[in-house]
Amino acid sequence: MDNGNNAGYGSSRRRLLAAVGASSATLAGCTDFLSEEESGDSGNGNDSDGGNGGDSGNGNDSDDGGNSGGETLWPAIDDGELLADFEEEPTRRTGELSMSADEARRGSQAAVVEDESGESAGLTVYFSDGIDLTDGDVSFAAKPEGANRIVVEFIAPGRQSRLTTVRLLPDEYTGWLRLDCGYEHKPAGEPDLSNVTAINILATNDGRPIKLVVDDLRKTDSVDNGKAILLLQGGYDSQYEIAADMLEERGWAAAVPVNPEAIGAEGRMDVTQLQELRDRGWDVCPNPGVTMPLSDMPKDRQRTVLENAKATLEERGFENGARHLLVPDDRMDQTTHEVVRDVYDTAYLFGSCPNIMPPTAQHMLSHVWGPSLHSGVRRHVNLADQYNQLTVLRMQEIVDTDEPEGDEMTLDEFEHLLNHLENRGLDVITPSDLVDGSYGGEGADGGTDGSAERPEGTIFEAGQSHGLDGNGSGSETVELDEGLVVAEFSHEGNGDFVVELDGDVLTAASGSTTGESVATVGGGTAEFAVEADGSWSIEITQPAVHADDLEELPVERSGSGSGYVGPLWTEGGVSLSPTHDGDGTFIVDGYGADGSREQIVNKTGSFDNSRSYAAGGTVWINVEADGDWTLGADPS
């Protein structure tokens, strides 16, 4: 996923048939490091279950220094449960494994893996009886040298049921840090976190010699609902004129990282506008303008830049937000990290994965590039919801156009993102909420708590019927009643065939095709917009839906081309197992009788993976495909 710093990246256009999935391809190359025959659930090797770290709650206030008497040295911590302190040697995965007393952060030694060839260096900690991570998150002390990526796999309980963390690091970082394992991807089946049998830790880079030191593998308690932080970087006018009201409608606040020297510049908010946002609960945070990376500056110069940026915002009345830094250009080495820890309460830089919640490493919080909706952002949101973690989404200008430039995000895509956060029920919080502990936990409206009551009688009355046809692109306006819409369509042409219902995609196909799609609507005037290069027809019906029609989970379906599954009765979240055997677009959307909509998959080409769906009540699952597909749905 792009970090948005390159002006040629970051734009998110509404072309539904564009190729996506580059992030997943990258993952496939760096997470497949277990041998095919190893399941991870046998417990062979060293059955290290570590010691018991207890719940001393001493935090991470210890300083660097010699490990005299087994004291806790940062970034080791004393919170939570110790899973492994590496007093016993773990299992080597790749590279050369050794143990080092000089590097120990806890106890008498730490684990060291090295690879002179610069491919990968990794180790495995096995748990012969399995460990339960259903209510906990994992972090560890790490010292990467020459590594720009750390991959962590949670085998739960076997190779086909795992979660991964893929954390990107600045190339220049070679010191100690604490790495929080936010879940970035589910490469295969649905994991069972009540039975994690192994944790694999792997460092990779781009061909340089690599060394990774690991210590203090630890579990801490997680929260009871997923969280999201919105970083609207730059202080652009559009964030005040467009985004602020959209967030206020939902009762949300965001953070605005700004260069203090650019406040009031052309196209940027002035102090009065920023103070208005502050009064709405927003954080106005420093994102200092620099002419060279902080990591290239002497330590005293770094401190001056960071302290001045904080002080300038404090002087203008932004004391709360001034505590939180967006690291300039995502560049940081261990010296920068040390200064940041002295000056700020939290710091954010691109890491390409969610964070555990609450985090144990608040000065290297990972953010992702928010406009990359089709390259991982929705997946991150879904995983943060499913596993009660924190996703931090960074955006810049919001523009009301279908042709964004550079790092702009379209209004439609921004609204899509907000709707997705709302539908998943994440708590949208600010950096100050995070450090002050005022982040709640009951979930936002729109999420499901598993308490839906099965309906009786009629869910939807029968409604309107319409026949539409045309040749080439066009639009038609019709009247619809509240309820279900079934659209049976045909297209005679060689190009794309896309049908939108009030701006939301109903059908996305290509070539000569027939099929059917569904959606739920609130009633009233509706617009069907068609993109086509040949003749087409759409038969629209609104059938009655009764409680007797509902099908219980689990269900399995298959088809070819466009189709749908439902109505289904879901008491809470749903675990989906979709597959696709085709070269073109594969889109899976969930529709609820309550009017909710969630895009679950939007990929190009073959697909075989699991996804979570924050359903609750009566739902339909719509499938758009250019080949054969299957869909399994189970309670989660």
From TrEMBL:
It comes from the Archaea. Residues 48-57, 438-449 have a biased composition (Gly residues). One of its GO terms (biological process) is carbohydrate metabolic process. InterPro entries: Glyco_hydro/deAcase_b/a-brl. Residues 32-75, 90-116, 437-456 are annotated as: Disordered. This is Polysaccharide deacetylase. It comes from Natronococcus jeotgali DSM 18795.
